[in-house]
Records
---
Amino acid sequence: MFDKTALDTLAALSHNGFNVYQAADPGHAAEIILSEITPAVAPRVVSYGDSLSVRETGVLDVFRQDPGIEFIDTFEEGVDRGELIERRRRALTCDLFFTGANALTGNGKLVNLDMVGNRVAGLIFGPRQVVVVAGANKIVPDANAGVRRIREVAGPQNAARHGARTPCAKTGRCMDCKSPDRICNVWTITDKCWPKGRIHVVLVDGSLGL
């Protein structure tokens, strides 16, 4: 059950123009996405930015297997990186784009950090509608706390997950490195959703993603 902090965060996000949804678990999040959000959007083209939280819902496989959907797979294994970059460019014109969030603030903002920029680019502009899936573990008091969370938790763990040869992957803490594998390149803070209702935030009760 969502605590007061989570409920207040959802209220703040709603006040800032985001559509918000409460999910009990990843399966419930998938149900919300497939039965509420997707029918309203009626997408023909679907894509995503890297997100463990989205993957845990299983919705990407549903769209991948739907013959009526053009699914732009931006992380398909065995595909040349140059081709994947081109797919990520095309993904910015899709109807429905899925991604996660590194932090959600108590005053209703999204804080994110990206390596290439395709994930945050899709969030802020391009795709007609966006779904953000995040666990309640991503909630922080404010944007400064969001930055700290990314430097101390999400950034190092994502670097290690991707096999990046960075100091943080070894120390577990941002060292503000100059490594060519550095994943900390593009910061975004989404204060408001514009146009109102374009971004749908599905908050999952409990810990989800990094």
---
Amino acid sequence: MTDLYQLTPKEQTDRLKKLATKALESWDMGPDIELELIKHRENSVYKIKTANGKYVLRVHRFGYHTDDALRSELQWMEALSQNGIPTPDIIKTRQGESFTIVDMEGVPEPRQVDLFAWIDGVPISDLKDNSDEPAMHRTIGTLMARMHNQANQWTPPRGFTRHAWDIEGLLGNHPVWGRFWEMGHFTDEQRAKIHKTRAVAKEQLNVFGQGPDRYGLIHCDFLPENMLKDGDMVRIIDFDDCGFGWHMFDIVTSLFTYSYRPNFKAIKNAFVEGYRSQRDLPEDQLKYFDFFLLLRVMTSCGWLHTRPETETARKFSAGLAKNLMVRVNAYLEKN
């Protein structure tokens, strides 16, 4: 049988759909189940329709999270909901577990699979026209600040573990998302500049520090499409990348894709205004915005480099590598 990773995206999702169907045996779904692919990127996400309701099922990418790390992700989601920051309701298996592990022929590794209640919401990115963008980002900034406040005040349960977007996770020899400097788009001269930037940036992060006013649990994918508006409620989804990191890294992650817009200044100012309505964000932290944006571009290059099979990597790798070198050159000129 052909290796899963040598197949087209359609062929891959066809196999993973069979695994998802098998996984549903761990829940009491009843007869006449329909599965519809929503997204195939980091994970494969399916909409589940049954006679008793609708759900969202995730088939996780192999090896990204340990079982303890996935369990911790779901624990934080539940804690946020209990603190008034709604997240999707987790549907426990018949055995009372927050996820199950499934293997089957044609998929070379066992996969973690979890299930959530369906949300009849719309991504807030789809509720706007361009004139509404600042208002949308003001809302996002407000929600992020509330999440950072909850994380700072929350005591995680024993055994809680998530990866860290710290110095090693961003700039070490084995970053969370991969060794971005190994992208094939860079020359040897460019790689030398990247390594020099890594060394200087590590020193800068050490100076910046990891006090609770600037470092803690972060979502790390706090984008408009990951916030679903359901009536008056906005639920935050997709905690797959959450971990321990700098609040400024969370902020630039949210704004990264908008940094190329002509109205980016208005978007950024609105986000900061919303954030500051709930939590302090002093100027001595905000001045590091462009620095953390550089780190975000580095990590995104790592993601693309280690996931060459994805459509996203094929489409954006060359352009983002070029963007990184522009930022690296500008950073080295100042440092």
